[in-house]
Amino acid sequence: MNSNNDRYPTLDHFVGQSALTRLQRLPESYSSQPSNTLLAKLEGDNPAGSVKDRPAYSMIRRAAERGDIKPGDTLIEATSGNTGIALAMVAAMQGYRMVLIMPENMSEERRASMRAYGAEIISVSESEGMEGARDLAAEMQRDGKGLVLDQFANPDNPRAHYETTGPELWQATNGQITHFVATMGTTGTIMGCSRYLKEQNPDIQIIGVQPAGESKIPGIRRWPEEYLPKIFEPERVDRVIDVEQADAETAMKRLAREEGIFAGPSSGGSVFAALNIAREVENATIAMIICDRGDRYLSTGVYDKP
After folding, report:
1. 164 is in an annotated binding site
2. Is 185 labelled as part of a ligand binding site?
3. Which reaction does it catalyse (predicted)?
């Protein structure tokens, strides 16, 4: 006899399948070619509110399937925010202890979200940054304090996007997608989507977005060579666009005010890059990743600036 438990899906069934929506007003204001279609994939729809729900669930699930971890074990990860929130959510859902290491200058909303899921947070200084957080995570693993999932080197990170995000984009556009735009942090999103989309049509252009110069855009990095994510394969990216922090933040605020899409600065970077591409091409279908929701950044004051 089937119980009610068999009728209703659990939380993990709602990771992915985010909305893909067309931008209506911004393309015109940026003088984009009218024949182009710009599509925003709203990853804030995920249970923990960002695109990182996909790799977080993939890394923990695959590790459990391999027998590397079991409920009750301690997991460790260096994070700037969204991955940590997502991992904390999955760990709470599946019964793991989660220790997250992050720079002290990350927004309070992110820290509060991680704590709400029961994660322990260890801070490193702003000067140590993500490099220092990654070094400390490795040191803790060597000392036997838990297992580092290592989003920067774990193939289950891009695998999540190869198996879900890429196919969703291909199916939602009926194979008409011509350009894919994603910011580059751990690079899992762009690596997994590039692999899948290029298998379907090698002519699809894969566009990476990174901060210009000394710009600081949460969630996007220009890594020193020795810290470059091991999952990153440069040949999978056709073009990299450098975006200034001010341009990313302006696009982010206009996205909210003119499209009704409330997102964070990294999403602004994707939007800015996609709008500039749309001025160069015609008859294109340009899809971009909107990584998370804007309420995660309110305490930083980024939405208070004119």
Report:
1. no
2. yes
3. O-acetyl-L-serine + hydrogen sulfide = L-cysteine + acetate
